[in-house]
Amino acid sequence: MNKLNKVLLFVLSVVLLACSSDSPVDENPKNILVNTIVINGSNIEDGTAKQLTVVVLPNNATDRSVTWRVSDASIASISSTGLLAPTLNGSVKVIVTANDGSGVSAEKTITIAGVKGPQVKVESIVINGSNITNGQPQQLTATILPATASNKAISWSVSNTAFASISNEGLLTPKLNGILTVTATAMDGSGIKGELQINISGVVPTYNTILKAENMLLWQRSNGGWPKEPYNDFSGYDRVQTAAEITTANNTKNNTDTTIDNNHTVGELRTLLSAYKSTSNPNYLNAAIKAIDYLFEAQYANGGWPQYYPDKSGYRHQITYNDNAMVNVMNLMWDISKSKNNTDVLDPSYINKASTAFNKGIDIMLQTQITVNGKKTAWCAQHDEVTLLPATARSYELPSNSGSESVGIVKTLMLVENPSPQLIQAVKDAIAWFESVKIVGYATQNTGSDVIVIPSPGNIMWARFYDLNTNLPFFCGRDGVKKNTLAEIELERRTGYAWYGNWPTTLIDSLFTAWKNKHGV
Predict the structure, then answer these.
(1) Which of 153, 158, 224, 226 is the most exposed place for a label (fewest CB within 10 A)?
(2) How many Å apart are CA 185 and CA 195, to the nearest integer?
(3) Helix 282-298 vs helix 349-368: angle between axes, to the nearest 10 degrees?
(4) Strand order across the beta sheet in which 50-51 lies
(5) Tell me: the pLDDT tens digits for 464-490?
(6) What would the pLDDT profile of 207-258 be if each residue is shown by its tens digit?
(7) Distance (Å, rounded) from C-alpha 333 to C-alpha 356?
(8) What angle is formed at CA 288 by the lines to CA 264 and CA 199, rounded to 5 degrees?
(9) CB-neighbour burial class of residue 181 (10 A; exposed 0-12, middle 13-18, buried 19+)
(10) For residue 447, what are the contacts with CB-CB under 8 A and spacing of at least 6?
């Protein structure tokens, strides 16, 4: 019998009925990858632009978006929607790649004829249009110089899709009153752009609303984030707010109690993105964008996120993995970088911002992995943002290796598509640590008035906290003193916190194996 099991023979109780703040995150739904892409389109014979299309299979793939590019931009350019604009006669290869990380791509060679004379590049673009005062759509046009430019095709875009949308032909359709910038970009590879700022007014919103989303708008703080209270478990968003609650929400707009604890801010903005997808209500998109900007601002220069921002009192300033706080933000940044899970409605500029934030987060995760007796192990629920050492949070949350929070960190590391040798080793070391500290032959039982540990042949579980020196489980009540068994701490803490669980099970049993096979580890 190993040392851990000997210790557990004296344990009288355990795992939890954790309160909502101590529950592990749910597994992500199954991700269905693209397996086939077919490019449709014929050769160009008249020297004019041609719209290409793709068939993406299977039809139920989670992310069916693609990226277009050409092998030679001097012969033709291609837009993000597949509009191929010729510049010279010749042949060009069109390449389409799935955005879901599957690595699936397709190629098609297009022969171009009918382009007359030497190539003349676009030198300037002037957008013709005016402010919108009646809330109605406006057809914009573009003057392209010189008049002899070989390829006058342009692509249209707007700075904020919450305020207006624009068609491929330049029809600007307002959604919300405000100021935005319209951009017309030459498609001949010259990189020339024209911009026009338009002030939109007179829009009378007629969008559908969703009660839960409306309540989230009400409780959003001025800085873009959300507080943990009064709706720690999110249930209060599902009902009509009382007059007193509305008054409180409006009077506390400027409070600085905004947090990523218990999935707040990330949870609200994800709900708003989903609501925007189903209603096209720009208020929901604007609020979600404001929250994402808040998260960018809250990130430390070293890549970590504090539990609260800007309030850094007490332990709120620490890099916080507890209850998957930073992991939730990292998963959001990953989705934005891949335009997944409703984040495709964001301006494309957010893709690079999120990718940068995600990569910085990965770096700090690697730096904070704890070394015990010369070996890399796991992570503490919180780390000092300056020294990066394991840190104390609440009185019963002492520096330790976490059998719970470390799982989410490893899953996040495994998202990286081209892992470095350092990252691969970090994952392998963490899995080895999980295997070394697993507790075999015991389970926890809720008696109705207490939780106890009982013999359970074959069962496997892990402790929430492991001592940094001995790698043995420990328990701690509100007195802040380590105990060897759960039975030694007060009843309120025994039954009110997640001291044991099976958090790493899926990670070890299936996810790690699939990851190793994917990367040839």
Answers:
(1) 158
(2) 9
(3) 40
(4) 50-51, 83-86, 76-78
(5) 999 999 999 999 999 999 999 999 999
(6) 899 999 999 999 999 999 999 999 999 999 999 999 999 999 999 999 999 9
(7) 9
(8) 155
(9) middle
(10) none
Beta strand pairing status for 53-57 and 76-78?
A: unpaired
Rounded distance between C-alpha atoms, residue 335 and residue 342, angstroms: 9
Q: pLDDT grade, residue 404 (50/70/90)?
A: very high
Report the C-alpha gap between 203 and 260 in whole angstroms.
Answer: 34
**Pick from 407, 393, 396, 390: nearest CA to 469:** 390
- The Cα 188–Cα 171 span in angstroms is 22
Place of tokens 């690079």: 352
Mention every residue, 6+ apart, whose C-beta is less than 8 A from residue 87: 74, 75, 76, 77, 115, 119, 150, 151, 188, 189
DSSP state, residue 87: -
- What CATH number does domain 36-112 carry, 3.90.800.10, 3.40.50.1000, 2.40.50.140, 2.60.40.1080? 2.60.40.1080
Average pLDDT over residues 276-298: 96
Which one-letter DSSP state was computed for residue 510?
I
Give the Cα separation of 336 and 343 in Å (integer): 5
- At residue 334, the pLDDT reads 98
Q: Tokens 């009918």 identify what position?
A: 114
Q: Which CATH class is domain 3-25+359-519?
A: mainly alpha
Q: What single letter denotes the amino acid at residue 220?
A: Q
The single residue listed with the structure tokens 């997808």 is: 277
Rg (CA), the chain: 27
CA distance 148 to 120: 7
The ranges of the chain annotated as CATH 1.50.10.20 are 3-25+359-519
Task: Print the SS3 string covering 180-239.
Answer: EEEEEEECCCCCCEEEEEEEECCCCCCCCCCHHHHHHHHHCCCCCCCECCCCCCCHHHHC
Nearest residue to 402 via CA among 485, 500, 476: 500
124-200 architecture in CATH?
Answer: Sandwich (2.60)
Strands 382-383 and 465-466, by their bridges, are unpaired
pLDDT-derived band at 30 (thresholds 50, 70, 90) equals low
How far are the Cα atoms of 67, 328, 498 from residue 323, in angstroms, in the given order? Answer: 35, 9, 10
Q: pTM above 0.70?
A: no
* Largest Cα–Cα separation, the chain: 89
Contact 400, 381 (CB under 8 A): yes
What does the DSSP 8-state code read for residue 313?
T
